[in-house]
Specification:
With about 260 residues, this protein is of the alpha+beta class. The chain has a domain of about 90 residues: 2-Layer Sandwich (Enolase-like, domain 1). The chain contains eleven helices and 14 strands. Strands 4-5-10-6-7 form a five-stranded antiparallel beta sheet. It has a four-stranded antiparallel beta sheet with strand order 11-12-13-14, with helices on both faces. β13 and β14 form a beta hairpin. It is globular. The mean pLDDT is about 90.
Protein backbone atom coordinates (compact mmCIF):
# COMPACT_ATOMS: atom_id res chain seq x y z
CA UNK A 1 0.00 0.00 0.00
CA UNK A 2 1.47 3.36 -1.02
CA UNK A 3 1.71 6.44 1.19
CA UNK A 4 -1.30 8.76 1.30
CA UNK A 5 -2.49 11.87 3.11
CA UNK A 6 -5.27 11.49 5.68
CA UNK A 7 -7.78 14.01 6.98
CA UNK A 8 -10.88 13.87 9.17
CA UNK A 9 -13.06 16.92 8.37
CA UNK A 10 -15.30 18.39 11.04
CA UNK A 11 -17.94 19.62 8.60
CA UNK A 12 -19.63 18.46 5.41
CA UNK A 13 -18.43 21.58 3.59
CA UNK A 14 -14.81 20.83 4.51
CA UNK A 15 -15.20 17.22 3.39
CA UNK A 16 -16.67 18.26 0.04
CA UNK A 17 -13.84 20.75 -0.51
CA UNK A 18 -11.18 18.14 0.31
CA UNK A 19 -12.86 15.53 -1.92
CA UNK A 20 -12.29 17.75 -4.97
CA UNK A 21 -8.56 17.38 -4.57
CA UNK A 22 -6.47 15.39 -7.04
CA UNK A 23 -7.00 11.65 -6.62
CA UNK A 24 -8.74 11.93 -3.26
CA UNK A 25 -11.16 9.31 -1.94
CA UNK A 26 -13.87 9.52 0.70
CA UNK A 27 -13.85 6.91 3.46
CA UNK A 28 -17.23 5.93 4.90
CA UNK A 29 -16.90 2.41 6.32
CA UNK A 30 -13.80 1.61 4.29
CA UNK A 31 -14.79 -2.02 3.80
CA UNK A 32 -14.31 -1.90 0.03
CA UNK A 33 -11.78 0.89 -0.48
CA UNK A 34 -9.17 -0.28 2.03
CA UNK A 35 -9.28 -3.81 0.68
CA UNK A 36 -8.77 -2.49 -2.84
CA UNK A 37 -5.83 -0.41 -1.65
CA UNK A 38 -4.19 -3.42 -0.01
CA UNK A 39 -4.48 -5.33 -3.28
CA UNK A 40 -3.04 -2.43 -5.27
CA UNK A 41 -6.31 -1.92 -7.14
CA UNK A 42 -6.72 1.62 -5.81
CA UNK A 43 -4.00 4.14 -4.98
CA UNK A 44 -5.53 7.43 -3.81
CA UNK A 45 -3.20 10.23 -2.82
CA UNK A 46 -5.53 11.35 -0.03
CA UNK A 47 -8.24 9.81 2.16
CA UNK A 48 -11.02 11.95 3.64
CA UNK A 49 -12.59 10.18 6.63
CA UNK A 50 -16.28 11.04 7.20
CA UNK A 51 -16.49 9.35 10.61
CA UNK A 52 -16.82 12.61 12.60
CA UNK A 53 -19.79 13.96 10.62
CA UNK A 54 -22.61 13.25 13.07
CA UNK A 55 -25.17 14.88 10.77
CA UNK A 56 -24.71 11.98 8.35
CA UNK A 57 -25.79 9.38 10.91
CA UNK A 58 -29.17 8.25 12.20
CA UNK A 59 -32.59 6.94 11.19
CA UNK A 60 -35.94 8.76 11.12
CA UNK A 61 -39.38 7.53 10.09
CA UNK A 62 -41.88 10.24 9.16
CA UNK A 63 -44.48 11.07 6.52
CA UNK A 64 -44.37 7.64 4.94
CA UNK A 65 -40.58 7.59 4.51
CA UNK A 66 -37.67 5.93 6.24
CA UNK A 67 -34.68 8.27 6.02
CA UNK A 68 -31.26 6.81 6.79
CA UNK A 69 -28.12 8.90 7.17
CA UNK A 70 -25.29 7.96 4.86
CA UNK A 71 -22.90 7.08 7.70
CA UNK A 72 -25.38 4.76 9.40
CA UNK A 73 -23.93 1.25 9.56
CA UNK A 74 -25.60 -1.88 8.26
CA UNK A 75 -25.78 -3.20 11.83
CA UNK A 76 -27.64 -0.07 12.98
CA UNK A 77 -30.19 -0.42 10.19
CA UNK A 78 -30.67 -4.12 10.98
CA UNK A 79 -31.16 -3.41 14.69
CA UNK A 80 -33.58 -0.50 14.22
CA UNK A 81 -37.07 -1.30 15.51
CA UNK A 82 -38.41 1.57 13.39
CA UNK A 83 -36.98 0.13 10.18
CA UNK A 84 -38.16 -3.37 11.09
CA UNK A 85 -41.69 -2.06 11.60
CA UNK A 86 -41.85 0.17 8.51
CA UNK A 87 -39.91 -1.94 5.97
CA UNK A 88 -39.07 -5.38 7.42
CA UNK A 89 -37.38 -6.47 4.18
CA UNK A 90 -34.90 -3.59 4.44
CA UNK A 91 -33.92 -4.57 7.99
CA UNK A 92 -33.55 -8.18 6.84
CA UNK A 93 -31.32 -7.13 3.94
CA UNK A 94 -29.06 -5.04 6.19
CA UNK A 95 -28.78 -7.83 8.75
CA UNK A 96 -27.44 -10.27 6.18
CA UNK A 97 -24.78 -8.13 4.53
CA UNK A 98 -21.32 -9.68 4.85
CA UNK A 99 -20.22 -10.69 8.34
CA UNK A 100 -20.33 -8.91 11.71
CA UNK A 101 -17.22 -6.85 11.01
CA UNK A 102 -18.61 -5.62 7.69
CA UNK A 103 -22.02 -4.86 9.21
CA UNK A 104 -20.50 -2.89 12.08
CA UNK A 105 -18.13 -0.86 9.90
CA UNK A 106 -19.82 -0.67 6.51
CA UNK A 107 -22.29 2.15 5.83
CA UNK A 108 -25.22 2.60 3.48
CA UNK A 109 -23.64 5.68 1.88
CA UNK A 110 -20.36 3.91 1.28
CA UNK A 111 -22.10 0.93 -0.27
CA UNK A 112 -24.12 3.07 -2.67
CA UNK A 113 -21.20 5.29 -3.67
CA UNK A 114 -19.08 2.21 -4.39
CA UNK A 115 -21.94 0.50 -6.31
CA UNK A 116 -20.44 -2.98 -6.32
CA UNK A 117 -22.40 -5.03 -8.89
CA UNK A 118 -23.13 -7.71 -6.27
CA UNK A 119 -23.88 -5.44 -3.31
CA UNK A 120 -27.22 -5.72 -1.50
CA UNK A 121 -28.17 -2.10 -0.78
CA UNK A 122 -28.47 -1.03 -4.44
CA UNK A 123 -31.26 -3.60 -4.85
CA UNK A 124 -33.19 -2.10 -1.93
CA UNK A 125 -32.71 1.46 -3.19
CA UNK A 126 -33.81 0.62 -6.73
CA UNK A 127 -36.43 -1.89 -5.62
CA UNK A 128 -38.14 0.61 -3.33
CA UNK A 129 -37.73 3.63 -5.61
CA UNK A 130 -35.71 5.46 -2.98
CA UNK A 131 -34.12 8.90 -3.28
CA UNK A 132 -30.41 9.45 -2.70
CA UNK A 133 -29.68 12.83 -1.09
CA UNK A 134 -26.29 14.49 -1.48
CA UNK A 135 -24.71 17.74 -0.32
CA UNK A 136 -25.92 19.39 -3.54
CA UNK A 137 -29.10 17.64 -4.75
CA UNK A 138 -31.49 14.68 -4.57
CA UNK A 139 -31.23 11.82 -7.08
CA UNK A 140 -33.98 9.31 -7.88
CA UNK A 141 -32.91 5.67 -7.68
CA UNK A 142 -33.63 5.12 -11.38
CA UNK A 143 -31.12 7.88 -12.22
CA UNK A 144 -28.45 7.04 -9.64
CA UNK A 145 -26.95 3.73 -10.79
CA UNK A 146 -25.07 4.03 -14.07
CA UNK A 147 -23.15 0.76 -14.48
CA UNK A 148 -20.18 -1.17 -13.14
CA UNK A 149 -18.97 0.76 -10.06
CA UNK A 150 -20.43 3.89 -11.65
CA UNK A 151 -23.04 6.28 -10.23
CA UNK A 152 -24.46 9.71 -10.99
CA UNK A 153 -22.27 11.29 -8.28
CA UNK A 154 -20.11 14.15 -9.46
CA UNK A 155 -16.57 14.87 -8.28
CA UNK A 156 -16.67 16.01 -4.65
CA UNK A 157 -20.37 15.15 -4.26
CA UNK A 158 -21.16 13.36 -1.00
CA UNK A 159 -24.17 11.19 -0.17
CA UNK A 160 -25.83 12.53 2.97
CA UNK A 161 -28.91 10.30 3.35
CA UNK A 162 -31.32 7.96 1.59
CA UNK A 163 -35.12 8.24 1.78
CA UNK A 164 -37.11 5.04 1.30
CA UNK A 165 -40.87 5.28 0.71
CA UNK A 166 -42.72 2.83 2.97
CA UNK A 167 -44.33 0.25 0.64
CA UNK A 168 -47.48 -1.79 1.06
CA UNK A 169 -45.44 -4.95 0.48
CA UNK A 170 -41.74 -5.67 0.13
CA UNK A 171 -39.50 -8.74 0.12
CA UNK A 172 -35.84 -9.64 -0.30
CA UNK A 173 -34.10 -12.87 -1.25
CA UNK A 174 -30.40 -13.46 -1.82
CA UNK A 175 -28.54 -16.46 -3.20
CA UNK A 176 -25.14 -15.68 -1.76
CA UNK A 177 -21.57 -16.61 -2.49
CA UNK A 178 -20.72 -18.40 0.80
CA UNK A 179 -17.22 -16.96 1.28
CA UNK A 180 -17.79 -13.28 0.49
CA UNK A 181 -21.56 -13.32 1.17
CA UNK A 182 -22.08 -11.05 -1.80
CA UNK A 183 -25.08 -11.84 -4.00
CA UNK A 184 -24.63 -14.33 -6.81
CA UNK A 185 -28.17 -13.13 -7.42
CA UNK A 186 -30.29 -10.99 -5.10
CA UNK A 187 -33.84 -9.79 -5.78
CA UNK A 188 -35.77 -7.05 -3.98
CA UNK A 189 -39.50 -6.67 -4.74
CA UNK A 190 -41.96 -4.02 -3.62
CA UNK A 191 -45.54 -2.88 -4.19
CA UNK A 192 -46.63 0.61 -3.23
CA UNK A 193 -47.37 4.12 -4.42
CA UNK A 194 -44.75 3.78 -7.18
CA UNK A 195 -46.31 0.57 -8.43
CA UNK A 196 -44.51 -2.76 -8.53
CA UNK A 197 -40.72 -2.78 -8.65
CA UNK A 198 -38.33 -5.72 -8.99
CA UNK A 199 -34.62 -4.96 -8.63
CA UNK A 200 -31.85 -7.48 -9.28
CA UNK A 201 -28.26 -7.38 -8.02
CA UNK A 202 -25.35 -9.76 -8.57
CA UNK A 203 -26.53 -10.95 -11.96
CA UNK A 204 -25.18 -8.21 -14.22
CA UNK A 205 -22.73 -5.33 -14.43
CA UNK A 206 -24.90 -3.42 -11.97
CA UNK A 207 -28.29 -3.43 -10.32
CA UNK A 208 -31.23 -3.39 -12.73
CA UNK A 209 -35.02 -3.67 -12.83
CA UNK A 210 -36.72 -6.79 -14.21
CA UNK A 211 -39.56 -5.10 -16.08
CA UNK A 212 -41.27 -8.29 -17.31
CA UNK A 213 -41.50 -9.62 -13.77
CA UNK A 214 -42.88 -6.26 -12.64
CA UNK A 215 -45.63 -6.48 -15.26
CA UNK A 216 -46.62 -9.95 -14.13
CA UNK A 217 -46.74 -8.96 -10.46
CA UNK A 218 -48.66 -5.78 -11.20
CA UNK A 219 -51.54 -7.94 -12.32
CA UNK A 220 -51.25 -10.42 -9.45
CA UNK A 221 -49.01 -9.91 -6.44
CA UNK A 222 -48.33 -13.61 -5.88
CA UNK A 223 -45.47 -16.02 -6.55
CA UNK A 224 -47.80 -17.93 -8.85
CA UNK A 225 -47.82 -14.95 -11.22
CA UNK A 226 -44.17 -15.70 -12.00
CA UNK A 227 -44.74 -19.32 -12.94
CA UNK A 228 -43.10 -19.93 -16.29
CA UNK A 229 -41.43 -16.49 -16.32
CA UNK A 230 -38.01 -16.32 -17.90
CA UNK A 231 -35.25 -13.71 -17.93
CA UNK A 232 -32.80 -13.36 -20.80
CA UNK A 233 -29.21 -14.34 -20.03
CA UNK A 234 -27.86 -11.76 -22.50
CA UNK A 235 -25.46 -9.42 -20.75
CA UNK A 236 -25.52 -11.30 -17.45
CA UNK A 237 -22.38 -12.37 -15.58
CA UNK A 238 -20.66 -15.73 -16.07
CA UNK A 239 -17.95 -16.76 -13.62
CA UNK A 240 -16.82 -19.68 -11.47
CA UNK A 241 -19.86 -19.16 -9.22
CA UNK A 242 -22.45 -19.50 -11.98
CA UNK A 243 -23.10 -19.02 -15.67
CA UNK A 244 -25.24 -16.27 -17.14
CA UNK A 245 -27.95 -18.86 -17.81
CA UNK A 246 -27.82 -20.02 -14.19
CA UNK A 247 -28.22 -16.48 -12.93
CA UNK A 248 -31.06 -15.83 -15.37
CA UNK A 249 -32.88 -18.91 -14.07
CA UNK A 250 -32.41 -17.80 -10.46
CA UNK A 251 -33.99 -14.36 -10.92
CA UNK A 252 -37.67 -15.35 -11.25
CA UNK A 253 -37.25 -18.06 -8.60
CA UNK A 254 -35.88 -15.59 -6.05
CA UNK A 255 -38.45 -12.98 -7.06
CA UNK A 256 -41.22 -15.46 -6.32
CA UNK A 257 -39.72 -16.28 -2.94
CA UNK A 258 -39.39 -12.58 -2.15
CA UNK A 259 -43.06 -12.01 -2.98
CA UNK A 260 -44.05 -14.93 -0.75
CA UNK A 261 -41.97 -13.47 2.08
CA UNK A 262 -43.43 -9.97 1.75
Amino acid sequence: MQAFAYSKPASLADAAYAAKGANAKLVAGGQSLLGAMKLGLAAPEALIDLADLADLKGITVSGGFVKIGAMTTHAEVAASAEVAKAIPALADLAGNIGDRQVRNRGTIGGSLANNDPAACYPAAVLGLGATVHTNTRSIAADDFFKGLYETALAEGEIITAVSFPVPDKAGWQKFKQPASRFSIVGVFVSKGAQGVRVAVTGAGAGVFRAKDLESRLAGNWAAAALAGATVSADGLNSDLHGSAEYRAALIPVLAGRAVSAS
